[in-house]
Specification:
single chain; alpha/beta; eight-stranded parallel barrel; binds phosphoenolpyruvate
Length: 256
């Protein structure tokens, strides 16, 4: 069974001091929790400080984005070479990057390729808009987007996929467990077609208004291995509770 993964996307929140305090509080709250890979994704400027704050613990650190080239005249951008050694993960293809910064599957694919080349583990986000869902196109959109973003990725080691319906992100309106499971199962089928048995190592996460109250509904699903958490990851106790619930559900599933 794949190790569950819970990642906190802090988005454009927290000053340097707030980020360090949040990382320390999460570290304290999770000191005794095992069996879940936990990733904190602060803003770029706080990555080094958060990495220091969690050093010696099981917590991992991730970036929220990355440029697809190593260096060059790209004012304001952050490259994979700058990230490798500083963090282990990078969120790629988040719907906010797609919507506000025009990122396409093709660009996300170039980023995924570069991340892997530099030893960074991509948390690749895919998901449909409300309109696409209402038109009955959710499955087609998500499978096409996934395949396009994974073009040229021959081995999936280190990869995680987050199914994040755009309509559920930051809205307080999560998918139901059933909706999330159907789409996670689709993601799994696409991955299995592409990678065969190796696909079983890839954690498939659900993201979109996850809170401690609804976590169980998602992580009990057979094809969901954790969560990508936005808003609720900014509160140490809420985030820690999401991780604890994930650990509990998984250890029960392991016993059964
Ligand atoms: C996200 O940022 O990926 C996300 C799912 O946000 P939220 O949990 O706030 O919906």
């Amino acid at each position: 069974m794949v190790t569950p993964l819970v990642a906190g996307n802090w988005k454009m929140h927290t000053t340097l001091a707030e980020a360090v305090a949040l990382a320390r509080a999460i570290r304290r709250a999770l000191a005794r929790v095992q069996g879940v890979e936990v990733v904190l994704c602060p803003p770029f400027v706080s990555l080094a400080a958060v990495a220091r704050a969690v050093r010696g613990s099981a917590l991992r650190v991730g970036a929220q984005n990355m440029h697809h080239q190593e260096k060059g005249a790209f004012t304001g951008e952050i490259s994979p070479t700058m990230l490798s050694g500083l963090c282990q993960y990078v969120i790629l293809g988040h719907s906010e990057r797609r919507r506000h910064f025009g990122e396409t599957d093709d660009l996300v694919n170039r980023k995924v390729l570069k991340a892997v080349e530099h030893g960074l583990r991509p948390i690749l986000c895919v998901g449909e808009s409300l309109e696409e869902r209402q038109q009955g196109r959710a499955e087609g959109v998500v499978s096409q987007s996934l395949l396009a973003c994974l073009k040229g990725i021959g081995a999936p080691g280190g990869l995680a996929i987050a199914y994040e319906p755009v309509w559920a992100i930051g809205t307080g309106v999560p998918a139901t467990g059933e909706q999330a499971q159907l789409m996670a199962a689709l993601v799994r089928r696409v991955l299995a077609d592409r990678y065969g048995r190796e696909a079983a190592q890839i954690p498939v996460l659900y993201g979109g208004s996850v809170t401690p109250t609804n976590t169980q509904e998602f992580v009990v699903q057979p094809d969901i291995d954790g969560a990508l958490v936005g808003g609720a990851s900014l509160d140490a106790e809420s985030f820690a509770q999401i991780v604890r619930l994930t650990a509990q559900v998984r250890s029960r599933a392991g016993e059964g």
